[in-house]
Amino acid sequence: MNKRLLWYIIPLLIISILVFLYIFVIRKTDDITIEARADTLKTEILPINLLYDVPVDSFFIEKGRVKQNQNLVQILKQFNLPEGSINRLILNGQKAFDLRKIKAGNNFTAFLSQDTLYQLRYFVYEHTPVDYVFFDFTDSLKIDVRQKEVKSIRKKAAGIIESSLWNAMKDAGIHPMVAIELSEIYAWTIDFFGLQVGDSFRIIYNEILVDTMSVGIEKIEAAYFRHDNRDYYAIPFTQDSTESYFDTDGNSLRKAFLKAPLRFSRISSKFSHSRLHPILKIRRPHHGVDYAAPVGTPVVAIGDGKIIKLGYQGQAGKMVKIRHNSIYSTAYLHLSSYGKGVTNGAYVKQGDVIGYVGSTGLSTGPHLDFRFYKNNVPVDPLKVEAPSVDPVKEENMAAFDSVKSRIIRQLDSF
């Protein structure tokens, strides 16, 4: 009886073991294999590499730059574009883009078929760092003017003046346009020709990127400048629908007069009651400030006013004199030529180009002799404290103080 029972029990045990092995070992192995295959499939799904929204792996790519005096038709002919397509381009192309406006030095990209015919399928001409013209030759000719993706990145930067603002910007890896924007903000407050070693700055600004390449500055959000042991904050605030920069007291950084009549030069001679003249070799008053600059450098009016004298004035050479109001007037000497529309009696606005640096009259070399008069008496232009215009209104001071506190915290945090 026991032997019979064993003959039934033993096969059942063997079957049970086999079922166990299948469920927990073989099935598990199958699951692992399936997962591994799934992982393999996942790794095989690669992202499509696009250039101007065209899959680059499907074409031969050729890049180049427009040569001097080269036109679009000449460029396209080197890619064996059929005459019919060129004719359609000439006839229909002007509707989307003026084909005559291509510029030497600008980039282009050709997408060519990967067969033996090596046919031009797409062509891209970069008109600006942002705008490009897309030519589609795959069917009937299509031309679109498109734009690359533009990103604005908020940045913070700081630097110390060791030689010049330009060099400080370069050493700190800051876009050079920031120096120009900064000089615009502080044009009425800081004399950038008189920067000193040890002066420092901190700025918060937005930089524009296209294809990871910087193409300029969108805006300076806030700035701080330490100059001549004084602190100058530039706090943006909108009043009467216009945004301007103000100091910590709510006074506009914009003043009645600019600090200097030209950008990024150097002072070669200052205001003096007794200066040895470089040509005459005698001592006599020099009631102006000389700015050394190349011939042709634009000279601007430091304030609104009326031109009361214009022409060749002996040793002063070509000169422009402006009366700003009943108290102040300025003069610009040794000019090479005058600005467009600059005539005797004409009214000019602050920042208008009134002439260009030269060396006319009694002059040792190209420079601007700039003179400032108060009640017709010459005064040192570097010591004039011009009044502010349009301060923050009393009813807006609470809102301004809130903005000011936030901006100063941000600027002082780095």
Q: Could you give a short description of this structure?
A:
This protein is of the alpha+beta class.
How is this fold's topology laid out?
Elements: H1 2-44, E1 50-51, E2 54-55, E3 60-65, H2 72-77, H3 83-92, E4 107-112, E5 120-126, E6 131-136, E7 142-147, E8 150-160, H4 165-171, H5 177-185, E9 200-210, E10 213-227, E11 230-239, E12 242-246, E13 266-269, E14 272-276, E15 283-286, E16 289-292, E17 298-300, E18 305-312, E19 318-323, E20 328-338, E21 347-348, E22 353-357, E23 367-374, E24 377-379, H6 397-411
Antiparallel strand pairs: 1-2, 3-4, 4-5, 5-6, 6-7, 8-9, 9-10, 10-11, 11-12, 13-16, 14-15, 16-23, 17-22, 18-19, 18-21, 19-20, 20-22, 20-23, 23-24
Can you offer a commentary on this structure?
The chain has 414 residues and is an alpha+beta fold. It has three domains: 56-147, Nuclear Transport Factor 2, Chain: A, CATH 3.10.450; 151-246, Nuclear Transport Factor 2, Chain: A, CATH 3.10.450; 266-383, Distorted Sandwich (Glucose Permease (Domain IIA)), CATH 2.70.70.10. Helices cover 22% and strands 36% of the residues. It contains six helices and 24 strands. It has helices spanning 2-44, 72-77, 83-92, 165-171, 177-185, 397-411; strands at 50-51, 54-55, 60-65, 107-112, 120-126, 131-136, 142-147, 150-160, 200-210, 213-227, 230-239, 242-246, 266-269, 272-276, 283-286, 289-292, 298-300, 305-312, 318-323, 328-338, 347-348, 353-357, 367-374, 377-379. Strands 13, 16, 17, 18, 19, 20, 21, 22, 23 and 24 form a ten-stranded antiparallel beta sheet that branches. It has a five-stranded antiparallel beta sheet with strand order 3-4-5-6-7, with no helix packed on it. A five-stranded antiparallel beta sheet has the order 8-9-10-11-12, with helices on both faces. Strand 23 (367-374) and strand 24 form a beta hairpin. It is flat. The protein starts with a helix and ends with a helix. The relative contact order is 0.08.
